[in-house]
Amino acid sequence: MTDDRSADWAAYYEKLRDRPPRRTLLTALDRFGPASAGSLAIDLGCGDGRDVIEILRRGWRVVAVDAEPEALKRLQARPLPAGSDLTPIVARFEDVPLPLGVTLVNSSFAMPLCAPDDFRRLWQRIRDALPAGGRFAGQWYGPRDSWVGRSGMTFLSRDEALGLLDSFDLEMFEEEEADGVTPRGNAKHWHIFHIVARKREDAAPQ
Ligand SMILES: C[S@@+](CC[C@H](N)C(=O)[O-])C[C@H]1O[C@@H](n2cnc3c(N)ncnc32)[C@H](O)[C@@H]1O
Description:
The chain is globular. It starts with a helix and ends in a 7-residue tail after the last strand. It is 30% helix and 28% strand. A 7-stranded mixed beta sheet has the order 3-2-1-4-5-7-6, with helices on both faces. By secondary structure, the chain is α/β, with parallel strands linked by helices. The protein has one domain (3-199): Vaccinia Virus protein VP39 (Rossmann fold, 3-Layer(aba) Sandwich), CATH 3.40.50.
């Protein structure tokens, strides 16, 4: 990341600090239920950890990945729940190996921040890494998002997104389109898919 980009993300973390965990994550954790405490999750593009803290609070082990050292510095400076088992990794999620035994892959507002080929390769790895019954939670971006055309980002039509999820049962697939403002105060048209998906027992190896 460039210094400018890093400064942008630092301002983002500061602005959104203390925000609650994402609804996609909460839905996935609720679906797993308390019996899944002790299981392993990875959070790709975790930022300063608004979701990571909640996963830890529910007793899961967490691998937290972000390309920005500042994100993980802030995460580790947070008060972590007692007994937390957290492995922070500074890396691009396109490159990071997915840990053996991962049951939940969470990526809130982060996975679209890589180029289409990388996105597809990463999704293939996520699909392969998850066991039957494992879940993906996060957001992908649609083609009417006003960031379309930015390099190094991925936008998917509804049909493309559903196609990529074809070996999953959809527990949430909500399409949101709205005019709004980014955390940095810029006007933006959002086109977002909010996803919670559970890998099917009969999912064929890809
Ligand atoms: C919009 S923030 C979302 C942070 C957090 N998941 C949340 O929901 O608040 C996106 C995060 O993804 C990270 N990020 C962007 N591209 C990345 C990449 N290719 N690999 C790893 N992290 C990346 C950024 O550093 C940033 O912390």
